[in-house]
Amino acid sequence: MATLPRCRLCGFLVIFLSVLGGAPATAVRLPLTRVATSTAADQRGELTRQAAVSLRRARHLKDPERRRRSSSTGPSRTPLASHSYGGYSLTLGIGTPPQRIPLVLDTGSDLVWVPCTRSYLCSDCPGGAAAARGPVFFPRSSSSVKLIGCRNPKCSWIHPPDFLSRCRYCPVNGSQPDCSPACPPYTVLYGSGSTGGLLLSESLQIAAGDSAVANVAVGCSLFSSRQPPAGIAGFGRGPASLPSQLGLRRFSYCLVSRRYDDSAGEHGTAELGGAPASSIDGLSFTPLLQNPSLGSPFSGYYYLCLRRITVDGKKVKIPHAALVPLPAGDGGTIIDSGTTFTYMEERIFEPVARAIERRVAGRYNRSAAAEELTGLRPCFSPAAEGDDLSLPELAFHFKGGAAMRLPVGNYFAVAGSSGAAVCLTVVTDAGEAAGGGPSIILGSFQQQNYYMVFDLDQERIGFRRQSCLESR
């Protein structure tokens, strides 16, 4: 795990110091584009990568405190999400005048951060050197930029109280010229990567031509490890998230089908604000739940009340305790735009996989080769080359009667360009104990071509199937 020592971050702070509204009443509609996170042309290789990073992200979301416990030195480490964000970004304006920066929409984290200054370093980032050449924010080109102070309440969004108790008092007479009252540098750790920098107060413009919202806390990241060539817009439930800071009572997104050619002319949409969700036709609603472990990192996730899972209409036998968030924080289902492939604990995954296998038994062959190469299972190959595969329906049934009946392209993917096999795009921690955190993480691959509405006023999520594809 790549991190920078405290002295280097302080050096960045010295360099930075030397160069230095409200929610929309109507919906603002923005393009939501796929972010290419790999240069690999081989589809099987991309499936392998997505399976691995989805599992790493799931492990982090299930135990975000693990990264905090692992270090006792250096800057405070704020637990957030993994580096595999599902690959969907929107573009926002940061600063005055606005600098348009792409940000990955991530409902599993809170902090909004952007690649910052010409000194921005991105090591081991997908896309190689191109990631480091992506759009960056230049603070000294903005007339509205301010460093957030150490005693500013917003500083506590990224640092624990015991860390902030060490804030230095800087005399106004300048008798201590090396004293900085700024919020200490942050290092945010993800499932397999990190980012770090300084917390700013800045103006944020949602859509080009709109009025800007002042005094939004934005991370100015000076280094990153294993991050895509974009910043992150945290859409979680914590105070630092974009919905919380903008006072949004509703937001929605529609994720275009995830292909591996990353066609530049195709995108979905994100909507921030707007009319009540009840005025939108065709939505099925289910309540949002609060994790009973209040004050823990789990309280920042969007929990859904999943009642059952069916395969071809038949209920899969799953332990009830796995579907309910318990006081210790474990169990339950969250929805996360930043996880690619859905994660299920082994006690849930195995019954689901067996139910699918029983439905195709005798019709298709298991492809051990595809399973070994991709890390996904089960994988099936047609009995004869060129045959179509008819696969069982997978459905999630939620409280309130809402059912997400997935099209086959949302839970099976072709492994290889020849179509020799298809694999279930669900990951699990095989052989590991259930542990803490959510039992199921509903990822972006399963949300393709669903219009997802987060109704924060009524504490519920609505969804409907539709084509999300739009052209520029």
From TrEMBL:
Keyword Cell division set for record: no
Domain Peptidase A1: 88-464
PROSITE patterns, alphabetized: ASP_PROTEASE (PS00141), PEPTIDASE_A1 (PS51767)
Signal peptide as annotated in the record: 1-25
Active site, renumbered: 106, 336
InterPro entries: Aspartic_peptidase_A1, Aspartic_peptidase_AS, Pepsin-like_plant, PEPTIDASE_A1, Peptidase_aspartic_dom_sf, Plant_Aspart_Prot_A1, TAXi_C, TAXi_N
Region ranges (Disordered): 56-83
PANTHER family linked to this entry: OS07G0603500 PROTEIN-RELATED, PEPTIDASE A1 DOMAIN-CONTAINING PROTEIN
Name used for this protein in its record: Peptidase A1 domain-containing protein
Organism: Spirodela intermedia (Intermediate duckweed)
